[in-house]
Amino acid sequence: MALTIGVDIGGTKVAAGVVDDDGEIVEHMLRPTPAREPDQVAATIAGVVKELAHGREIEAVGLGAAGFVDETRSLVRFAPNLAWREEPLREKVASLVGLPVVVENDANAMAWGEVRYGAGRGESHVVCITLGTGIGGGIVLDGNLYRGRWGMGAELGHMQVVPEGRPCGCDQRGCWEQYASGRALVRDAREIATAHPERAALMLELAGGTVDDIEGEEVTEAARKGDPAALEAFGLLADWLGQGMADMAAVLDPGCFIIGGGVSRAADLFIERARETFVRTLTGGGHRPVADIRLAELGASAGLVGAADLARLR
Amino acid sequence: MALTIGVDIGGTKVAAGVVDDDGEIVEHMLRPTPAREPDQVAATIAGVVKELAHGREIEAVGLGAAGFVDETRSLVRFAPNLAWREEPLREKVASLVGLPVVVENDANAMAWGEVRYGAGRGESHVVCITLGTGIGGGIVLDGNLYRGRWGMGAELGHMQVVPEGRPCGCDQRGCWEQYASGRALVRDAREIATAHPERAALMLELAGGTVDDIEGEEVTEAARKGDPAALEAFGLLADWLGQGMADMAAVLDPGCFIIGGGVSRAADLFIERARETFVRTLTGGGHRPVADIRLAELGASAGLVGAADLARLR
Amino acid sequence: MALTIGVDIGGTKVAAGVVDDDGEIVEHMLRPTPAREPDQVAATIAGVVKELAHGREIEAVGLGAAGFVDETRSLVRFAPNLAWREEPLREKVASLVGLPVVVENDANAMAWGEVRYGAGRGESHVVCITLGTGIGGGIVLDGNLYRGRWGMGAELGHMQVVPEGRPCGCDQRGCWEQYASGRALVRDAREIATAHPERAALMLELAGGTVDDIEGEEVTEAARKGDPAALEAFGLLADWLGQGMADMAAVLDPGCFIIGGGVSRAADLFIERARETFVRTLTGGGHRPVADIRLAELGASAGLVGAADLARLR
Amino acid sequence: MALTIGVDIGGTKVAAGVVDDDGEIVEHMLRPTPAREPDQVAATIAGVVKELAHGREIEAVGLGAAGFVDETRSLVRFAPNLAWREEPLREKVASLVGLPVVVENDANAMAWGEVRYGAGRGESHVVCITLGTGIGGGIVLDGNLYRGRWGMGAELGHMQVVPEGRPCGCDQRGCWEQYASGRALVRDAREIATAHPERAALMLELAGGTVDDIEGEEVTEAARKGDPAALEAFGLLADWLGQGMADMAAVLDPGCFIIGGGVSRAADLFIERARETFVRTLTGGGHRPVADIRLAELGASAGLVGAADLARLR
């Protein structure tokens, strides 16, 4: 039974696990991400890996990180939440742990985990959409993880959906993640609550009466209890999600979409409407099979499991 | 020297050619597309193929057709300009000509032709954009023609770029091809000429003074002579083209775009500005290599050559 | 019985009439507008007036002209369809005919005619919307014709309703008249017919099969016969008209709207829906009386009758 | 010297003053607005009036209140911030104080105050725009305060400027006050700070590092110190203000705009750009005089002074 280690490097914590070739996590470990100094991060990763590897035969290590990873899966060109710029992460960690290492974009690793062991098992063409603060994307095409010419593919959240729309951290305007993400949900909920406090009574109560204290949790809880404003905010999220999937289907014609990320825990509040919008806005609808829309199954460990599997298949 | 036959089936004519493994057209033939009865079309195709094959050893036949072709490359599910609905084109033609046949979407065949023998030689990740009345798309990823789960991929012209925008023949609104195509160019030019005849003096003169007689040719000629309205129309085309390529780059991260189709003959009037808009609106710009933008090289025979090559590689 | 003469000066013809103080036209006359030389136009007007005045006691003359008329009702600052720039029309005509003259914007004159003798009788606050190629506007407030500080008020068609919208002859973009006018109707009908010829079968048949030959007449006739595309185009017109009236109501709170102009002859095809959209989009709806929406009653002679009456009340 | 009393009834406080016929405030008084029970509010108003009137000869009383006031200036049909629904405010207060009373919308009263004694002295056609949380409007035409057919005119903030735009408390979407008001400024500033914290460093510092704690004060202070995000937010405000004034000019052709309200205290940060946008987007620009844009001069007492003067002129 071949073992590999997967590591998911976030802005605040490093999650790592030993994974077998059934995608099962044999052992799991969590550490805080150290200060943003690149060498310290590499050392922390190496420390976790060595600890997990102790007394086991490990084939390889897969690292998932938020950022642009180059096409050789060695270099992190740019990571918004860590201090990495052209960081040779693969070499650094490999030399510290004495094992083969691959680096992967974290949303790619999650997508791969879901396709191998989760909601996408058996599917050849999958678009994975991670709804968090923004939108993360991962694409599997013809059974392989798709990276693009330079490793920068699948930045789905940065397709423009509204010309001259809301400003985005990527320096453009109108990006999809400004309309169909956790942050967008909160923004829409607050806008509606500001304009129509009477419709948002429940949501405002949950937020202590202050619009600016409405967060995702309040929107979700209020929506579950029938608050009209919260439901309207989820309706907007659903419509933008459905329309964006239709755009993706025009380009990629996937067999299946997988919706993950923190916002997907409230999927009962938007997934049906997202599906309806998707079907209604799909180009060529009626003349083509309609892709499945599924919820992610592996939760927070998808990235770790995916990274470990990518290391095995390196 | 292995020979195959490529056939490009258009709404008004069938173009066919014998192609060698250098992508050279050995012999070429044009026939009018018969009335829309499917069996007649198949018979016409078969007739042309037999005539071209006469006295030669032909390996296989590749057919390119505007429409949704299924993932087995046998069936045309739907063709807007021909009477095909779930048409088993591959079987029909194969049984008539006694040779292996593959069917491919015409824009896909063009893309493949350009990547194998034209502007995309040596590139592994290419997005091919055919600017005609609408937009046709073809995608090559990791060196292979990309078809999608059910053969419906690369319908690039039907990404939505403007919410609730211009109506599209695909039954949706705001599709990219309503903003960056030959038809869009003419529409914009007419709108500007209607609003500001004084800026469109040259273009109107070329159209005999009638806004409704402005066609692509008049816009192009007037723009070349400096007509402000015509130049403004090309500017809009350029901006929408650049923005759409940026969206595609967010998803696919190609190494190269190829711009073909009838409108590309006027590329001198828009390609530089399209490139500038692409660079300016590219997400993550500054942290990534920038894809090349090239003009197609094979002209009208790209589809035929591509189809022939796909038959060889079947 | 006091008589005045009203003259409606159009781009192609001059219509004039002797009007009594019941608003009845006692005698009527039509002349072609001469070449665009200002003095010739003045001479033509004077000729018509003298002919009509012959053998009658005429109090004064009112001239209605498309263009910006200054607040003293003497000067035409700018007329898009005639060669007038800072034209002292009042003096010129007065000295030629030896009668008091007032000059008024033509849409203002029409509005006044309708309020005095047509659909707006008895109303104190009226917004008059003339739907022709563009939109003409006239406003009556507190029983008086409203002109603005410099005579340029009531250019209703040039409120912006779509940011960065369709180009307008006034050099701005997104003006109301680009969405709710005869020209807009035709443009929308053509767009829909281009995208969905199957829905526009009737309309296309009426236009001889050519999208570019669809004009207002074809849209109207096809809509009356149930053509879906033509009905959709009228639906768009209705919605933009209703929304624009709601905007006007927010600013002016009129008691009544009067819809005139050539397009209003097809009012059965859009007026109900326009009213519904107006009511739905009216700010503060439910807490305020809702303005009446009426069709103009005087037809093409409204401008002439209004100008004559304004001369009487000078 | 004739004295009248003006009362400005806000959601939290009642401001009242004795005003002479030069518009000077002879005596001034502030009281908290009592709980929302209508009779209590009337009693509070009456109490203040009696106290001020004590020992003086008072001609009449003018009340300014946020809400829809009917055309007879007697009834408050609807007040969003108080519990008034079809409230006969004029009768109630008149019977309590034994003096003639008129009721006026508060933004109308402010506009009148400014035109009589402030920035609009000598002007006949004025549009007054009060930039607070939302937008309040008052219009003076031909030297008279304009009320509309039913007293609901000049709700300028509720013209739609963006189709399907931001939700508004009036139950519509895309209203002007959602783009050009204090609330809009804060919303835009927060959006930009969320997308680009690095550009909003100063503004975030002033807000203790929390985007949701950015309020108008922080935006203003940061903009004064050159914070790029804060300046961008003011730029958006300026452009929407300028465009809206251009729309108003198309309809009303005023000689002068007066900008007041709390946001106007930061006018140095936006008024020049608003003027430029106004001039650039004005229909018929170049063929017409351009309205003046001035800042309000009377500050918070404009409403009180205007109400008092309207009582005098009743």
TrEMBL record, chains A, B, C, D:
PROSITE patterns: ROK. It is an enzyme of class 2 (transferase). The keyword Nucleotide-binding applies. GO terms for cellular component: cytoplasm. GO terms for biological process: glycolytic process. Its EC number is 2.7.1.2. GO terms for molecular function: ATP binding; glucokinase activity. Keywords: ATP-binding, Kinase, Nucleotide-binding, Transferase. SUPFAM superfamilies: Actin-like ATPase domain (SSF53067). InterPro entries: ATPase_NBD, ROK, ROK_cs, ROK_glcA. Belongs to the ROK (NagC/XylR) family. This is Glucokinase. It comes from Thermocatellispora tengchongensis. The lineage of its organism: Bacteria, Bacillati, Actinomycetota, Actinomycetes, Streptosporangiales.
